[in-house]
Write a structure and sequence with these properties.
Elements lengths: L3 E2 L2 E2 L7 E5 L14 H9 L6 E5 L14 E4 L11 H15 L4 E4 L1 H9 L3 E4 L5 E9 L15 E8 L1 E5 L5 E5 L7 E3 L4 E4 L10 H7 L1 H6 L4 H6 L9 H14 L1
Parallel strand pairs: 3-4, 3-5, 5-6, 6-13
Antiparallel strand pairs: 1-2, 7-10, 8-9, 8-11, 11-12, 12-13
Helix pairs in contact: 2-3
């Protein structure tokens, strides 16, 4: 019989945490170990054998939501407005998971896909690309939220996105904002959250995304060098991952 490692359940003991992989890291990050799903799992403190990674674009079928302990949705270079078949399948699956109150955390693209699945509006941010280390301010509702209450009122976070949640789903609660992004985080019901920033990114990763957007940033008369110089660690944002893991573990017992 399999045991428990470091207080964290193995897949064979309990329902798995599913990480829905919706994209891959950009080529310039080849020298940095891992990918979105690895960084998320590490940030949550989950060992590899306690996580089931599903490729949203390649999976023939997604598991029954009742068979998983929780779901985290990664970032992606894809755009929700593409409405690809795999996105529509994933959105339907997420909606079913929410009906069963499976804990769900959408990150960046995952945040947008979750909002779309719930009837929100996603499109390009009219203010342009938000990339780099950005100050995020929590909304008043965050103080009482089971997940976001672990975050300070203001914190630094790593961001890289062109599209945004332009309108929250009906019934969603706004949890955070930034200068360029009015919907940095939201909650829907008791166990579903979207977050536009990347709590799994560190200060080694985000400069690569600043460089990735060099041409677009130039068109917006924004300095790549200044954005790179402003990159800083954002350890407080990672608290979100640890707390979500606690919520998943508590619900799977």
């Amino acid at each position: 019989m399999a045991g428990v490692e470091g207080g964290i359940p193995r897949m064979s003991d309990r329902k798995p945490l599913v990480i829905l992989k919706t994209g891959r890291k950009i080529p310039s990050l080849a020298s940095i170990h891992g990918d979105y799903e690895d960084w998320i799992a590490v940030g949550m403190g989950w060992p590899a054998d306690a996580v089931r990674v599903l490729d949203a674009g390649g999976a023939r079928a997604l598991p029954h939501p009742g068979s998983v302990a929780g779901i985290a949705i990664t970032g992606s270079g894809s755009m929700v407005t593409e409405r690809a078949d795999w996105m529509l399948r994933a959105a339907d699956w997420l909606a079913e998971a929410l009906n069963r109150e499976v804990p769900v955390l959408g990150i960046c693209f995952g945040h947008q896909l979750l909002a779309h699945a719930l009837g929100g509006e996603v499109d390009y941010n009219p203010r342009g690309v938000e990339v780099g280390t950005v100050e995020v301010t929590m909304a008043e509702a965050a103080a009482d939220d089971p997940l976001f209450s672990v975050l300070p009122t203001r914190l630094w976070a790593q961001l890289s996105h062109r599209q945004s949640v332009r309108a929250l789903p009906t019934g969603a609660t706004l949890l955070g904002t930034s200068e360029m992004e009015p919907h940095q985080g939201f909650a829907y019901g008791p166990r579903a959250w979207g977050v536009q920033f990347h709590p799994e990114f560190d200060e080694r990763i985000i400069p690569h995304f600043v460089e990735y957007y060099r041409e677009i940033l130039g068109e917006q008369s924004r300095s790549v060098d200044a954005l790179k110089a402003a990159v800083r660690p954002a350890p407080e944002s990672r608290l979100l991952l640890r707390r979500f893991a606690e919520i998943v573990r508590d619900g799977s017992r």
